[in-house]
Amino acid sequence: MSGMAPRFRLFVWMATALLALGSAGCETTDSALQNSGKSEAYITGFHDGRHSGMKEAGNYLEHVVKDVQRFETDTDYREGWLAGEQEGIRMQNQANAAVGSAAGYQIAKDADKSVEKDIKKAGKSATENVDTESLKVLK
Q: Which of 19, 21, 41, 130 could covalently link to 77 via disulfide, CB atoms 3.0 to 4.6 Å apart?
């Protein structure tokens, strides 16, 4: 039964990670933006903002993309950038949560091993100088 617990925890962790990553993949597409009547300027701003949002939320592989002059003068680009930034932050936070779940699982797994070793070590240390011969009659 104890062998099942780590397998079950691994299963739960994998299911959680896949769910988080799967929902992180639910990003807004160009066609969805076009079908909702958004302009090309909005869509460009949305893409730039999404990359920026992911960077802001901790994705070191992303980079901030912002056409500052266009952001200041083009309302569609600015609105798209701001919406994209929020989506990028949300997506990255979901990905971070999945990674955190993996790290949490590993920490718990390592802690279980550590506790087991500590208990064995404490038991050994406690009985190190004890004459256990007289205790054998208690069996």
A: 41
